[in-house]
Design goal:
Helix content: 25-40%
Radius of gyration: 25 Å
Strand order of the largest sheet: 1-8-3-6
Number of strands: 8
Order of helices and strands: HEEHEEEEEEH
Distance between the termini: 36 Å
Length: about 130
Amino acid sequence: MSAIGLHKAPVHYSESGTLGVGLHTLGNESFEYNHVYANRTLELSSNNASIIVSWEGSKAYQLNLASNITISPQGRPTVNVISGNVSYTYRVTAWDYPYSFLALPSLISMIMGTMLVFIGYLKLRQGR
């Protein structure tokens, strides 16, 4: 059972659009916090825009965007568009463990099996 619980499956999330002036947090909150991440990619493009990009645990990066740029954020990105419009594509590849619910029954079975072996060994020793 515990080996089955270790099975992982890739899941993908993608979002794209155009951002106007203002503060924008990208991504889906429930997807972002319920999966183990392998890769995040943020592609930004504009003819002339001034932006600030940041994510959890990083400093803010101020960019004057005149073409395309690809960023690999370590957390859910926040884009603050100061001037202009920015087109973006945000992709996340994550790992999901669909059978992780089997971990608790597997642990209980292991503990019970260990107890039964120990009790059997004690009864074997008493019989001599």
